[in-house]
Amino acid sequence: MHATIEAAARRLADAGRVVALTGAGVSAESGLDTFRGADGIWARFDPDEVAAAGGWLGYLIARPWDGMELLRGIRDAFGTAEPNDAHRALAELESIDRLHALITQNIDGLHRAAGSTHVIEMHGTFRRKRCSGCGGCEDVSRERFVADIDAMIARLGSFLVHHPAHLLDRCPCGGLLRPDIVGFGDAVHGLVEATEAVDAADVVLVCGTSGVVYPAASLPERARERGAVVIEIDPLPTELTPLADISVRDSAGRALPALVDAVRRVGSSV
Ligand code: NAD
Ligand code: ZN
Questions:
Q1: Which of 69, 111, 170, 172 places its Cα 20 to 30 Å from the Cα of 241?
Q2: 108 Cβ closer than 6 Å to some ligand 1 atom
Q3: Ligand 2: distance of its center to the CA of 204 in Å?
Q4: Mind listing the pLDDT tens digit for each residue in 208-264?
Q5: How far apart are the first and last CA of the chain?
């Protein structure tokens, strides 16, 4: 047992409110590539090219061959990934009242799949669609997600796609149902709710994020300035390490279950 995990557990057991901020590293042990990793789907696509095409849909339409490759990569990764021990441990922390909000940058939907309920998905999720007309949302099962991607690949393969309406289903209001993903340059979701949660927190648990994507990365800074305790779990030092009161240098899938066990022990011995 790491001494740092024991120290982190004491902070969590004593805190009034705890908030977690997670990133791609939490899903690494579910087989999903991190963003900064050297290979994988993210490394193959240049954000500047995507931005130049007016976003992901424009990119798919402008470059159908690359678009089909991208969609296959997304389908094979996000359509098969299951929650891992890190997601389950965070859901358990919520169930024992030691986690009051979970802010994630991940778009894989794995925190909710593991049973977390108070989740703020700042970058959106593949597991929901949002209508560009009325703004209405609908949840998307994993099977539906895979079927939708396959349909998009088939339509792109016809080379008759010139407009997003040729790729997406329509809402009853007539608007287009887009994957509810925040693209480069788009406003993030839930920033007000996330900021409020962080402002009320005594402890912020940061896990599996390099801390380079803003505004998510500003949340631990904001908490630290107010005197909240910042605990970081990441196998490597990150941009947020200088802010952290406690850094646990281990994978999320090992450290988080150990942390939950330690919180239960510390909590029951008070
Ligand atoms: P990042 O790739 O920039 O950083 C990942 C961090 O996780 C690194 O610090 C790395 O050391 C750490 N890490 C690697 N393996 C780990 C493990 N097993 N346990 C704990 N930590 C581990 O990720 P980010 O900061 O989240 O930024 C990535 C951006 O790309 C976000 O905007 C996100 O929306 C998107 N993205 C999402 C997913 C997903 O939904 N699963 C995957 C990749 C990228
Ligand atoms: Zn609509």
A1: 111
A2: yes
A3: 37
A4: 999 999 999 999 999 999 999 999 999 999 999 999 999 999 999 999 999 999 999
A5: 20
Residue found by looking up tokens 């005594």 in the block: 202
3 state SS of 235:
coil
Q: Indicate the SS3 state at residue 131.
A: strand
Cβ proximity of 197 and 101 under 8 Å: yes
Q: Which residue type does 234 have?
A: D
Q: Whose CA is nearest to atom 18 of ligand 1?
A: 251
3-class DSSP string for 62-111: HCHHHHHHHHHHHHHHHCCCCCCHHHHHHHHHHHCCCCCEEEECCCCCHH
* CB of 234 sitting under 6 A from ligand 1: yes
Q: Token pair of 247, please?
A: 């850094």
188 lines ligand 1 (CB under 6 A): no
Indicate which residue's Cα is closest to atom 31 of ligand 1. 105
Going by CA atoms, what residue is nearest to atom 2 of ligand 1?
35
Helix (H) or strand (E) holding 222: helix 218-225
CA of 114 to the centre of ligand 2 (A): 29
Q: How many CB atoms lie within 10 A of CB 40?
A: 14
CA-to-CA dists, residue 113 to 35, 66, 87, 186, 194, angstroms: 21, 30, 9, 25, 20
Predicted model pTM? 0.94
Q: Residue 34 corresponds to which amino acid?
A: T
